[in-house]
Write a structure and sequence with these properties.
alpha+beta; four-stranded mixed β-sheet; 32% helix; elongated
């Protein structure tokens, strides 16, 4: 299910008892919603969530110095060579055919191209009409995590996102999933 960011904003305001818009601006609440989505994305990457949540796929053409990882990159899930074989991650500055390595924000491989499946940060939420792909079961956790951030309770936000990470936001639109 996709919901408009404005609906999430309204629910966060109710959670904060700020329906009159006196304590927080809309912009601030959109930032807290974005922070909550990022928190869920990091938690999904940490536990290697296999539901497709906050994941993306891209094809990268390798050069001698490697290839830059996507800007929204968090963690590699899997990497495949040009013929579809899964590549082995190694810790070397010169990976061979069938291997890949990371050096900072660069992906290195002995292959000519790599199809990369990775965990990624969602696009920030900036206005009422932005769509957030989220199952009904995750609406309240997202609202709670955003509300905890708004109240300055980062530890409660982290614990809540950890608790719900197994059923977090599904990647079904461009706000949470990117195909490269």
């Amino acid at each position: 299910m996709s919901v408009k960011a404005g609906l999430i904003l309204d629910k966060v305001r109710l959670q904060l008892n700020d329906s009159q818009k006196t304590a927080k601006s809309d912009w601030e609440i959109f930032q807290y919603i974005s922070d909550a989505l990022r928190e869920f994305a990091e938690e999904c990457a940490r536990v290697d969530d296999k539901t497709g949540t906050f994941t993306a796929k891209t094809s990268l053409v390798m050069s001698a110095g490697g290839c830059a990882l996507p800007e929204e990159f968090i963690k590699i899930s899997r990497a495949f060579g040009p013929t579809g074989e899964e590549l082995l991650r190694v810790f070397s500055d010169v990976p061979k055919a069938g291997e890949f390595a990371m050096r900072g924000t660069q992906l290195l491989s002995g292959e000519t191209s790599v199809t990369l499946y990775y965990y990624c940060y969602p696009a920030p939420v900036n206005n009422y009409s932005d769509m957030i792909a989220i199952p009904n079961s995750m609406l309240l956790p997202l609202v709670k995590v955003a509300s905890y951030f708004a109240n300055g309770n980062d530890s409660a936000a982290a614990v809540t996102s950890q608790y719900f990470s197994g059923q977090s936001v599904k990647a079904s639109d461009s706000s949470t999933s990117k195909e490269g």
